Amino acid sequence: MATRVLWGDTHLHTSQSMDVFLFGTPNATLDTAYRFARGETVTSPVTGKPWKLSHPLDFLAVSDHAEMLGTTKRLFDGDADLAATPTGKTLLAEAVDRSMAGLLKAYHYLVRVGSGKASSDMVSQQDVYRDMHGGERRRGPWGDAIDAAERYNEPGKFTAFIGWEWTSQPGGSNLHRVVLTPDGADKARQFMPFSMLEGQQPEQLWAWLDATSKRTGTEFMAIPHNPNLSGGLMFADAQSDGKPITAAYARERMRWEHVVEATQIKGDSETLPALSPNDEFADFERFNFIMIPNGPRAAPNRSDYVRSALLRGLEVEHRTGVNPFKLGMIGSTDSHTGMSAVEETAFAGKSQKDADKEHRSGPTGIGSSLGWDMQAAGVVGVWAAHNDRRSTYLAGAITIDGFPRQHCTVAAHQGVGGVDWRRAGRSKSALGTSAICGMLHFVALDRSRPEWSGATLLLVRPFWTARWFANEISALSAGGGHKSGAQGELR
Question: Which secondary structure element, helix H or strand E, spans residue 139, and what is its range?
Answer without folding.
Answer: helix 139-152
